[in-house]
Amino acid sequence: MKRIFKINLLILSTLFLFTACEKKEEINQEEKIIKSVFVIKPKLKDENQNRVFSATASSSYQSKLSFKVQGNLNYFKVQIGDEVKKDELIAKLDNKPYELKVSQINFALSEANATLLNAKSTYERTKKLYVNQNASISDIENARAAYDASNAKVKNISKELEYAKLQLSYTKLYAPISGYISEKFVNENENVNTGTPIVLISDKLVDEVRVQVPEIFINRIKKDSSVKVVFNSVNKESFEAKISEISKFASQNEKTYLVIAKLKNSSKLIKSGMSADVYFDIHSKDVLTEYLVPSNSVLNDKQGYFVYVVVKQNNKYFIKRKDIKVADLIKDGFEVIDGLNKNDLVLKAGMSEVFENMEVTISNIKELGN
Fold this sequence. Notes:
- It is a single chain.
- Helix 2 (96-131) runs antiparallel to helix 3 (137-169).
- By secondary structure, the protein is of the alpha+beta class.
- Strand 22 and strand 23 form a beta hairpin.
- It is built from 5 helices and 25 strands.
- Helices cover 29% and strands 36% of the residues.
- The mean pLDDT is 85.
- The chain folds into 4 domains: 34-49 and 289-368, conserved putative lor/sdh protein from methanococcus maripaludis s2 fold; 52-59 and 205-280, Efflux pump adaptor protein, beta barrel domain (Elongation Factor Tu (Ef-tu), domain 3), CATH 2.40.30; 64-91 and 173-189, no CATH class; 96-169, Helix Hairpins (Orthogonal Bundle), CATH 1.10.287.
- It has helices at residues 2-33, 96-131, 137-169, 215-218, 365-368, and strands at 35-37, 39-40, 43-44, 51-58, 62-66, 71-75, 83-84, 89-93, 172-174, 179-184, 191-192, 197-203, 208-214, 226-231, 237-250, 256-263, 275-280, 291-293, 299-301, 304-313, 316-323, 325-330, 333-338, 346-347, 359-362.
């Protein structure tokens, strides 16, 4: 009996130890789950700093060429960057089907002309017979009707021939201006439909930049106001420009508006498509409070832009999502115009490793002065 009691006691002791170790291991596991993160405080943007937006250089005159007929593109030798002269042949479609059509209508016209000559001759002969009372009124009316019908058929076929020749001429595409090939949309030997873009030709002089401006600033930009344009690829040279156009409609993908600025003095070094920075002087008395946060801290989903912030609750820190509105991305990060304040603790990195309400610890808490 004592032996059985000792065995039971040993079993209970073992179970107790095992349970205690298991609980201790669970506690340790929970402690390991708490992730350590780095946070930053939003940096207040200098209100006196000019607003800078990214832009693209373009020609004031650009022409997107396409064929007015469909066919196989059997000649297309130009490359992007090539210089072309006005009326120079750019591309050509296989014109055999259109030449065949012209040939068929020519043959039909020859037959119609022969029929017309015969009808005319019959009509003239019938008129003489009628004068000599050798033909009736019915005969002359029938002859005249045949002549009129043949004449109408010749005119109709002549118009068909004119249209067929016009279609044939449309198989060749010529440069409407002297300029450069800015873009190619198709390749040689492709079948193209009517109106399919083939190539974009830009004027030789690249004298404007196009920039998308967020809606929050568009009403502070005025037509004919001066801006500074800097091309990093042209020795970071700055050019004076004047705003020539401001779109009244937002772009489809984002709530931005197209603004076009005309360069006062261009340069041959500026090529269509080059990137540039446009400096707008859009200061106002009611300047918004703007903050800067690193670009990698800002995330975007169907609901819009947001950041993860760390919030203190009961002496513990938890991850929270915070929706924001951004203005532009500059070299110092995203400009945030709404949703943040100066005391927010924004997650600096590791956004893919955290989730809402996740408990964390802050590694750099002393650096923040908290």
